[in-house]
């Protein structure tokens, strides 16, 4: 009989699988450690150029500035994990900001209903995106592109050019203030990060996300409703964009029709740089956060060096291509065995 | 077709190392015009690497490849093709959106210049006719059957005046009559002086068609022999290094009055399934035979709720479950091990443990939080129970061999405590040794009372394992064979002609 | 095996047109009727000439985008390339007659060159074109804005004839457009390179195994896309007389819409430039009708979003069966 055939294959075969198992496990840790190390290196470079960079006050400013992007990037990561892409986040951020002014609120009490309305609106947008992608099989790129244009049109037809309403004064505190010595918006980002980390890395939902992102058809065949998981990811992404939009308005202080402009690209760049792979099924919350922090640090270095703000575009473009190339090569090396 | 000068292709002491493995170790191989030379060996023996080197897709680390005595270096598939070497891959490499004629000629002549469509169309149609397989050259390939597509590949080889034709497991995607037609064409090409390299798992094919056989094992050449010097047994010994006696574990004596757990009546799921009928009893292994494209996998999908059902009934222990989702079928005790392991079965980016637990996530969930430790412990047990060659449950499933991947999938479904298990080609692409183990797993499951629907294109598997065999042809059942009536010939008759 | 060839041809023509194109043609007619109902001047030759002139730049960009999408890719740098070439052209000529032709050729070459770089990045780095072109777009936009934030340069008045002249009442732009669409359509249908573009989009693995030079085909396609974006940039300089660093911004995403409406699928291998031409004309007509109705831009955006969704939903459903 042939009992031993598969369970003791010729030596090198087994060392091959053992070796690659180990390297896969270490790579999983290493990618995030590597990102953190890269972030540290960037901070070191910034400090060498401008010692004031490392001042707690400056770091606080940077983090306050980064918080909305951190929030949006985490949401974007969920959509990318299920093989999607959300180009509508920036348009949604601005639309939610306009929505907030529609309350024309003077009192901070109104912050609660404003958040509730913003989240409900964002969730609806996410639901529509998700349904277009799953039920209508529209490519995520086009579905969210159309949503981006739609929201833009709705926003402008409502504002007729410039938003008129006001925001409760407490928004400023949400966007720039401190609580117990920690920026409020950073705390919010951290809280959301914990919730999303548990959902993605400790929860059953997260397991479904990875299964569906890795192989939607196989997911269906093990009884996972892939469509439902995908829609949930779009809803999460839009809700994060909505919340991020409100914090960004709080940070900027004024509402115009283009609040959040560029965040769709920045959030994708940050997520990809953080190791969330565009083909789906690979990535982490920690990676997404590190990616966003790296991006913000790079922007700050540009300013420190004295380059004009437009230089940010150049660096952003180079960074996204470089990061994607590095990850693509890692993946290739991983799968180059016969 | 013009007369071709005879050709010789020789590989001398070819070696190729991939990270972690020596895929080929000083292998010698040669093929002459007018000869069919079979390349046999288990999975991982190095056959596909050798094919890639011949086809120019991979460069050897050392050793020489020569044609007609002249040493050649192919740095791309194009180089090899220019030299007259044509490889037909297992997954057919065609363009579904383009026409038959374009599929035959594209990439061959007038590479970037003006395309002579009319000429292509008449020539393609002539070649296909000469192959005894006429097709409208203007049709989109996406609309054609697998057998048609394979003929297009062969037509392509003819059109390019291939002097060396390499076929990588061609019969893996076709069966029965279509496979026989293919063999006839190959014999015809041999007569025309083409040198043919034929790679196959199936011993009967090797004996039916080849003149010589080279056996590879673990990257080394075991032997090259004339087919007449060999018997199936002696060839098996060379391939696996041992004889396989009683591959199929004996069936226990069974009682006839087991209850029917799965009953399928008049099930239709067009276009492939028109009228599916079967009854499956607890503890029974019911074989489902038929040619490729007969609708077997599609019937399984329709039963499992993974394909739309247009009519008919599926009953599970008397309860009607027609049109239930896979999720509902799983919760009612049905499992489905799919045919295409890599694209429909495994979760390639995840580890072994996650692959095993996938249909039973709720069992590892406490208020939405996933019990990873419990999952890992489960996977360790399963690795031991099914003797899966893996260090632990955290090993990525992509690093396992075909047999171990398949065992992981068996673990996945046996852990859901199924009442009914549908197995679609459970031993495809698995080497001979692992096959025997999988047969034993199947038998153990059935003895424990699981009703098994076994879809297989390997007749020996149906005969050796099934208690009863039903056969499908063009979407309908053509007959049912009891254990006493089952034979490879009987199944084939029902599959091809539809009558016993 | 040889049925009556006239019938075969008719069947082929119908199959080639496809249901989605018939729907598209129907929509075009609908837009025309709507236009005539809305405005009495709509059905004038002058208005049609206007529409053709307005859509020419848009049409040029969409041709390149069609090629990129046919290979299963996408080019998100077309807007940036347009802006870059427009600025380069206007600033380079800066009103000097003698430099018009050399600089125009150089601007077109610059576009093709940027496209070739895109193609090389896609093929060498093995990064998805979406990411590569997003990245190069950001780089180019940053560089342009570092150079100038305001419209710059100038061209001789006669250079503006390209955009405005109407010999015998027919706009030059329309003639150029017709010639280019016809040439690209013939190229796609009857050359090995053209067919290879389809083959790469349909099954790139098969294409490369067959010895189709997949990488060169992709580099060519992105180069062509860059060239056509540059042509659009040149056209806009001719129309406006200056090099506006932001002229291309709306074109990146807008160039995708007519391609999709025209039946080219995002996954590649299916479609063509004739569909794109119809898509361009349909969108231009709708825009024209809405303008005649005094519909504000914001509502036009909503309409545009809905059109994209309607088109992709329709094609997605057709593809599923």
Quick tags:
heterotrimer, A: 338 residues, mainly alpha, two-stranded antiparallel ribbon, 14 helices, 2 strands, disordered N terminus, C: 0% strand, globular
Short description:
The complex is a heterotrimer of chains A (338), B (500) and C (321). With 500 residues, chain B is of the alpha/beta class. Chain B is built from 17 helices and 22 strands.
Strand count, sense and barrel status of the largest sheet of chain B are: 6 strands, mixed
Mean pLDDT of chain B: 86
Q: Tell me the total number of β-strands of chain A.
A: 2
Quaternary structure state of the chains depicted: heterotrimer
Structural class of chain B: alpha/beta
Mean pLDDT of chain A: 86
Strand elements of chain B, count: 22
Name the overall outline of chain B. globular
Number of helices of chain B: 17
Tell me about the largest β-sheet of chain A: 2 strands, antiparallel
Radius of gyration of chain B: 24 Å
How far is the N terminus from the C terminus of chain A? 29 Å
Shape of chain A: globular
Question: Explain this structure to me?
Answer:
The complex is a heterotrimer of chains A (338), B (500) and C (321). With 338 residues, chain A is mostly helical. Chain A contains 14 helices and two strands, in the order αααααααββααααααα. The longest helix of chain A has 39 residues, at 11-49. Chain A is globular and about 55 Å long. Chain B has a six-stranded mixed sheet, sandwiched between helices. A six-stranded mixed sheet of chain B has the order 16-19-20-13-21-22, sandwiched between helices. In chain B, strands 2-1-4-5 form a four-stranded antiparallel sheet, covered by helices on one side. In chain B, helix 4 (117-130) packs across helix 5 (146-159) and helix 14 runs parallel beside helix 15 (432-447). In chain B, strand 11 and strand 12 (273-281) form a beta hairpin. Chain B is built from 17 helices and 22 strands. Chain B is globular. The chains are: A mainly alpha (338), B alpha/beta (500), C mainly alpha (321).
């Amino acid at each position: 009989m042939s009992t031993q055939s598969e369970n003791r294959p010729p030596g090198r075969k087994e060392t091959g699988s053992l070796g690659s198992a180990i390297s896969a496990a270490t790579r999983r840790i290493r990618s995030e450690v590597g990102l953190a190390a890269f972030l540290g290196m960037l901070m070191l470079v910034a400090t060498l150029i401008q010692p004031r960079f490392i001042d707690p006050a400056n770091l606080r400013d940077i983090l306050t500035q980064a918080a909305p992007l951190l929030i949006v990037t985490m949401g974007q990561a969920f959509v990318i994990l299920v093989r999607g892409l959300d180009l509508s986040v920036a348009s949604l951020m601005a639309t939610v900001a306009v929505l907030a002014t529609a309350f024309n609120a003077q009192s901070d009490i109104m912050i609660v209903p404003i958040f509730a309305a913003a989240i409900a609106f964002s969730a609806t947008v996410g639901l529509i995106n998700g349904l277009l992608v799953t039920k209508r099989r529209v490519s995520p790129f086009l579905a969210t592109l159309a949503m981006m244009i739609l929201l833009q049109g709705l926003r402008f037809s409502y504002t007729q050019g410039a938003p008129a309403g006001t925001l409760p004064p407490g928004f400023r505190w949400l966007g720039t203030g401190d609580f117990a010595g920690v920026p409020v918006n950073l705390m919010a980002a951290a809280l959301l990060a914990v919730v999303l980390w548990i959902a993605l890395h400790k929860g059953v939902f997260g397991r479904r996300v990875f299964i569906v992102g890795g192989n939607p058809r196989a997911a269906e065949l093990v009884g996972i409703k892939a469509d439902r998981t995908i829609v949930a990811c779009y809803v999460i992404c839009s809700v994060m964009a909505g919340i991020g939009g409100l914090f960004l308005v709080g940070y900027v202080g004024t509402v115009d029709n283009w609040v959040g402009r560029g965040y769709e690209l920045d959030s994708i760049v940050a997520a990809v740089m953080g190791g969330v792979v565009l083909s789906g099924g690979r990535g982490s919350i920690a990676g997404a956060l590190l990616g966003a922090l790296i991006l913000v640090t790079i922007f700050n270095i540009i300013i420190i060096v004295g380059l004009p703000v437009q230089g940010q575009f150049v660096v952003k473009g180079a960074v996204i291509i470089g990061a994607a190339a590095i990850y693509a090569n890692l993946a290739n090396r991983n799968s180059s065995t016969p | 077709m013009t007369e071709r000068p005879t050709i010789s292709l020789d590989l001398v002491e070819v070696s190729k190392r991939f990270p972690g493995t020596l895929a080929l170790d000083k292998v010698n191989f040669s093929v002459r015009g007018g000869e069919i030379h079979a390349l046999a060996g288990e999975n991982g023996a190095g056959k596909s690497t050798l094919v890639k080197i011949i086809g120019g897709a991979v460069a050897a680390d050392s050793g020489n490849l020569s044609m007609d005595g002249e040493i050649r270096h192919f740095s791309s598939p194009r180089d090899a093709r220019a030299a007259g070497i044509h490889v037909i891959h297992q997954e057919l490499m065609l363009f579904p959106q383009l026409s038959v004629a374009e599929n035959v000629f594209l990439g061959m002549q007038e590479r970037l210049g003006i395309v002579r469509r009319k000429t292509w169309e008449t020539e393609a149609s002539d070649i296909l006719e000469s192959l005894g397989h006429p097709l409208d050259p203007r049709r989109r390939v996406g609309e054609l059957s697998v057998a048609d597509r394979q003929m297009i590949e062969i037509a392509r080889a003819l059109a390019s005046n291939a002097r060396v034709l390499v076929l990588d497991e061609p019969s893996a995607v076709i069966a029965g009559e279509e496979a026989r037609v293919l063999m006839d064409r190959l014999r015809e090409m041999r007569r025309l002086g083409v040198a043919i390299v034929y790679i196959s798992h199936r011993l009967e094919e090797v004996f039916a068609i080849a003149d010589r056989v080279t056996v590879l094992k673990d990257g080394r050449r075991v032997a090259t022999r004339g087919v007449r010097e060999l018997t199936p047994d002696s060839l098996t010994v060379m391939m696996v290094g041992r004889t396989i006696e009683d591959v199929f574990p004996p069936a226990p004596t069974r009682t006839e009055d087991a209850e029917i757990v799965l009953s399928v009546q008049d099930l239709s799921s067009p276009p492939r399934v028109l009228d599916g009928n079967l009854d499956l009893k607890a503890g029974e292994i019911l074989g489902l035979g038929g040619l490729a494209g007969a609708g077997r996998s599609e019937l399984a999908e329709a039963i499992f709720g993974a394909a739309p059902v247009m009519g008919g009934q599926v009953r599970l222990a008397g309860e009607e479950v027609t049109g239930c989702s896979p999720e509902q079928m799983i919760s009612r005790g049905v499992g489905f091990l799919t045919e295409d392991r890599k694209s429909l079965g495994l979760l390639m980016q995840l580890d072994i443990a996650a692959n095993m637990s996938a249909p039973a996530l709720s069992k590892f969930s406490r208020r939405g939080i996933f019990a990873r430790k419990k999952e890992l412990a489960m996977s360790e047990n399963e690795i031991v129970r099914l003797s899966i060659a893996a260090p632990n449950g955290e090993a990525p499933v992509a690093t396992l061999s075909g047999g171990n991947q398949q065992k992981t999938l068996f673990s996945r479904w046996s852990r859901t405590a199924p009442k009914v298990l549908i197995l679609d080609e459970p031993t495809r692409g698995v080497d001979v040794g692992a096959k025997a183990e999988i047969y034993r797993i199947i038998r153990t499951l059935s003895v424990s009372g699981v009703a098994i629907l076994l879809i297989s294109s390997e007749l020996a598997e149906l005969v050796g394992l099934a208690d009863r065999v039903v056969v499908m042809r063009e979407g309908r059942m053509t007959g049912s064979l009891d254990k006493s009536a089952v034979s490879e010939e009987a199944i084939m008759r029902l599959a091809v002609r539809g009558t016993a | 095996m040889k049925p009556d060839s006239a019938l075969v041809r008719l069947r082929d023509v119908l199959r080639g047109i496809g249901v989605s194109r018939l729907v598209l043609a129907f929509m075009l007619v609908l837009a025309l009727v709507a236009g005539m109902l809305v405005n009495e001047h709509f059905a004038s030759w002058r208005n049609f000439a206007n529409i053709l002139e307005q859509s020419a730049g848009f049409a040029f960009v969409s041709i390149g985008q069609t090629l990129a999408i046919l290979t299963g890719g996408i080019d998100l740098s077309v807007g940036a390339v347009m802006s870059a070439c427009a600025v380069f052209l206007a600033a380079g000529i800066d009103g000097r007659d003698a430099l018009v032709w050399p600089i125009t050729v150089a601007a077109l070459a610059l576009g093709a060159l940027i496209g070739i770089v895109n193609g090389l990045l896609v093929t060498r780095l093995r990064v998805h074109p979406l990411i590569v072109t997003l990245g190069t777009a950001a780089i180019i936009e940053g560089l342009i804005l570092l150079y100038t934030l305001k419209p710059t340069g100038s061209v001789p008045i006669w250079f503006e004839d390209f955009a405005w002249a109407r010999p015998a009442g027919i706009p030059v732009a329309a003639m150029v457009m017709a010639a280019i669409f016809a040439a690209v359509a013939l190229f796609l249908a009857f050359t090995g390179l053209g067919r290879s573009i389809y083959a790469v989009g349909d099954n790139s693995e098969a294409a490369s195994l067959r010895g189709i030079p997949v990488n060169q085909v992709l580099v060519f396609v992105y180069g062509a896309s860059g060239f056509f974006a540059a042509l659009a940039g040149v056209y806009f300089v001719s129309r406006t007389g200056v090099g506006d660093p932001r002229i291309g911004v709306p074109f990146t995403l807008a160039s995708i819409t007519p391609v999709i409406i025209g039946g080219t699928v995002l996954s590649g291998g299916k479609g063509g430039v004739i569909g794109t031409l119809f898509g361009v004309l349909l969108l231009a007509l709708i825009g024209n009708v809405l303008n005649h109705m005094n519909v504000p831009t914001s509502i036009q955006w909503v309409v545009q979003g809905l059109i994209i969704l309607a088109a992709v939903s329709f094609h997605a459903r057709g593809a599923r069966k």
